Amino acid sequence: MGLKNTRAGNYPEWYQNVVNEADMAENSSSPGCMVIKHWGYGIWERIRDVFDEKIKETDHENCYFPLFIPLSFFQKEAEHVDGFAKEMAVVTHSRLAMKDGKLVPEGKLEEPLIVRPTSEAIIADSFSKWVKSYRDLPVLVNQWANVVRWEMRPRLFLRTREFLWQEGHTAHASAAEAEEETKRMLEAYRDLCENTLAMPVLVGRKPEHEKFPGAVDTYCVEAMMQDGKALQAGTSHFLGQNFAKSANITFVNKNNESEYAYTTSWGVSTRLIGGVIMTHADDEGMVVPPKIAPYQVVFVPVIKKPEDADAIMAYISNIANEAKKVMPFGEKIRIKIDKRDKSSVDKFWEWTRKGAPIICEIGMRDVESQNVMVKERIKLGTPEGKQIVSAKEFIDTLATRIDSIQKHLFTKAKERLEQNIRTDIKTPEELKKYFESSNVWIEDEKQGKVAFVRGKWSGDANSEELLKAMKITIRCILFDQSGTEGVCLLTGKPATMDVIYARSY
Fold first, then answer.
1. Count H helices, E strands: the chain?
2. Using an 8 Å Cβ cutoff, are 452 and 224 in contact?
3. Which of 179, 215, 326, 360 gives 237 a disulfide partner, CB atoms 3.0 to 4.6 angstroms apart?
4. Distance between terminal CA atoms of the chain?
5. What is the pLDDT at residue 2?
6. Is residue 324 pLDDT above 70, yes or no?
């Protein structure tokens, strides 16, 4: 009952199969865009709800800013606009008119409007109105919004022309305070990835050529996918005074002097769902960590005789009502009773493809014996994958069972990450040879996959061209530095900086 494409056979097609078979999203008739369907959007809602709570716990407040941004706002910050220029969608007319049976643009705008690719420019304009004194600082805001970037090679969840995200923006009285905020939110992303998505990450700073346009420093969390490629899971930017100067965000300090504020921005998007897929899904379909599963337990009635239906449904309802009192992770459990008029086999495999953590099949035999047939998604195909337990035992152990699934997914992904970071590559020749190797899936996940290399980098200005030639990137300059000397894996020059080299999405 596996997918038609496997990870080993065709990884890109396998990814698309997972999305399709889990019914998470589909390509829209609007080119380059996606329709996020119920299950996929339910996962995003869970990510959003968990992180929104964390945002508010750190004293940020949600706002909403315009989708349309005057072109002149971007022109104030040359480096920023240059970084996004090729991806910007532009509105030049205000309406349509019918001429000769065709709709044509009319009402040319005096100034073109950019459809939001990111909001630093428009939010900085608001900050310039809100901030007058040091007493107005810090300003800590976030917005949940959609963004438009004109991707030429769209891929569901990973790269689409419109996507959903959160973007935090803050203004501070000092550089030290703004840098502290930047790193605090980076740590919030690490926590979200590891403790909610069960997706281990490496933490560090982007090299100069990979920084967010207009930023002084960009910090990131980087995850390893099952094919060994890196996925940038979140970024946090220290913007210094660059945007404050372009938007005139000034304040009178405690010495009664006027100075520019220091700003930050940070964001994650629906790309995280792509990361969850490529971290946890298998050749049977999606696997969803319980903390972000729209439903953590799905009950599938097995009704072979119409006259048994009422008894089976009543039994399931009683168990579900008791299960609703269980509080895994300190929150109300999410349960679905699948009452659709379809065969129980079809429903079981649908929920398997969707990656529901626990699927319970209950028929008349279970009613009579007061049992529950429990199937855990992560144990599919193993002797432990199907268990018959009493209804009481099911309820008593449910929270522990769900917690164990979450921990298992993180542990498995963490082991994969740690086992596939090469540290024995010491020369440019060895690095080149390594990344020229084929990227083959190894079933035990312990060796053989072209993945990450931890090695030295000199910071040479010619690095970007050398990386492009090898079709790899420096994912981050690790916070966890060894302090040792070695040889730069790009130039052969002496180097002390530890970085991660990898292919990436």
1. 14, 25
2. yes
3. 215
4. 29
5. 83
6. yes
Q: Distances from the Cα of 60 to the Cαs of 56, 57, 86, 260, 281, in angstroms?
A: 5, 7, 32, 21, 34
Residue bearing tokens 């440019």: 428
Instruction: Report angle CA 473, 74, 217 to the nearest 5 degrees.
Output: 40
CA atoms within 13 A on the CB side of 449: 26
Instruction: Examine the pLDDT at 106 and tell me if it is beyond 60.
Output: yes
Give yes or no for residue 441 having a pLDDT over 70.
Answer: no
Please tell me the predicted confidence (pLDDT) of residue 461.
Answer: 86
| Secondary structure (3-state) at 158 | coil
Write down how long the chain is: 505
Q: How far apart are CA 426 and CA 454, in angstroms?
A: 10
Which helix (H) or strand (E) segment holds residue 112: the answer is: strand 102-115
pTM (2 d.p.): 0.95
Q: Which two tokens stand for residue 13?
A: 């097609």
Where is average pLDDT lowest: 79-93, 336-350, 434-448? 434-448
Q: Which residue has the higher pLDDT, 110 or 9?
A: 110
445 pLDDT more than 70: no
Helices (H), 373-485: 391-419, 428-436, 463-470
Residues facing 265 on adjacent strands: 169, 237
Q: Quick one: pLDDT at residue 493?
A: 96
Assess whether pLDDT exceeds 60 at residue 236: yes
Q: Is 471 exposed, middle or buried (0-12, 13-18, 19+ CB in 10 A)?
A: exposed
Instruction: Calculate ∠ Cα 419-424-430, nearest 5°.
Output: 115
